[in-house]
Give the backbone structure.
Amino acid sequence: MSRPRFTYSEPVRFTVSDDTVLVTDGGLATELEARGHDLSDDLWSARLLMDAPAEIAAVHDAFFAAGAVIATTASYQASFDGYAQRGIGRTDAELLLRRSVELGKAARDRAGGTGWVAASVGPYGATLAGGEEYIGRYGLSVAALADWHRPRLEILTAAQPDVLALETVPDIDEAEALVELVQDLGVPAWLSYTIAGEHTRAGQSLAEAFAVAAGIAEIVAVGVNCCDPSDVLHAVTVAHDVTGKPVVVYPNSGEVWDGAGRHWTGNADFSPALAADWVAAGARIVGGCCRIRPTDITAIAAAVR
């Protein structure tokens, strides 16, 4: 049975053009940890939607002040399943999801009202809280993944962000489920994979992965996030060649997440200067993910001017 498409009360403002580069924010959770918060539980930064929403607001403010024009909400790891495990019912969970968008909107308004709010839609693996999004292939069908994602997407969409950020997607199956949902709901979104080298985390070719979004009007940009910065340039070229769409990129620092130990390992190799090469190859939304700080965003903004 078909479902009604959402109608925004205001015109959707989010557009990506060939002659403009939009700077998105960096690691929200990284900044929350830097402000003294322990994010080691399964809800990660989504816990602070309950416990310390003002701290999330402060991080949004910091990234806007650093030069970002897009705030990504704290809903990445927020899910009905995850909140239920903490004894939080569906009604309260819906309020928290909406709160994530409201916090981003309020920060945008404090920054002058000229930015955008991207509602983060993390992958199914994120809610398993063991780093499964860096592996993919959960054993669920496309239909099962769509059924799992739909309620959260409906709530986030009803809160009217400017765009949905379908991010850190490790697997074509999950991408197909998410693309099907945004088409059904009629909302703009970007689709961003997490990759390793020249493949998705599940081992699929990037050409095959990006082809999922080709010709889909609701997908306004495609790209990669939370990957090694050295993997970005090739992905930008493939994404642009396969889809013809603007490309979104926001890698992590180059360190590696240890899901079992819940900490980052290895060395950082992120350089804001790389952003100019990504833009030259077709990237039009550029920022950072985990371990990328406001000072990095300021440097990215300077590099892509």
Remarks:
- The chain has twelve helices and twelve strands.
